[in-house]
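re: that chain from earlier
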Amino acid sequence: MAEPVELGETMRRARRRLEDAGIDSAEIDARLIVEHVTGTTRLDLIARPDQLVAGPHVEAIEAALARRAVREPVHRILGTREFYGLPMRLSAETLEPRPDTEVLVDAVLAVAGKGPLRILDLGTGTGAILIALLVQLPQATGLAADISDEALETAAANADLNGVAARFSTVKSDWFEDVGGEFDVIVSNPPYIATTDIADLDMDVRGFDPQRALDGGADGLDCYRAIATSAGAHLASKGWIGVEIGHDQKDSVTAIFEETGFDCHEARKDLGGNNRVLIFRASD
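^ sequence. v structure.
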């Protein structure tokens, strides 16, 4: 078993290990790992840098650093990531919910109203989008659809973790295939990377995110076609559709939905100024 090490020295060693591995975010990743394993905070590091980190914790930190050194994302190592201020557990079959996707939640909240809405989240993954909406809309109920059993289990666990399990249900479905009923809001962050572009993604993404959650087909638009083609049969009168898109897909995704009877109500940009979210409504 490893010998105990002072907290300050543990943090320095962790940062150096990741810097030597070429990790650009070495300092913050090292801090996240050390704090997660030891249960300490930045205040502890400042006030008590000489407190000892027990041998088992030293070993757990070393194991986590070894994973990060080969580019496994830090939040996958920790097993959780925050989304819209809420903790979300991750699994091998789910994407990490990222800050840019919070733009979709904001856009939907701006149009959906506050009543007893029924919301469908297609390709739910961790359930982050639907859960964030349910937390903000206490009269709403939601159905999370995904083709992966593991993703649905993760989403259900996250709904329970965030106190919305009573208004959250799941269905295993390939897009709308096994979804019944009408919804006031349909949301999705579907796979939108062109198949041939996946090899060019950062190793943090292509090496650890599930392939089928990334691959949008030859042009990256297959999933939007599937959603747009069937959404009309499941969207309530005056309902809304909100989708996340790739930065260069605004015009092409808008055209797909317009061809199937929807008008683009709004386009929103992400934190980096890129097109990221489109909101649609059935044409009058």
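The two ends are 70 Å apart (CA to CA).
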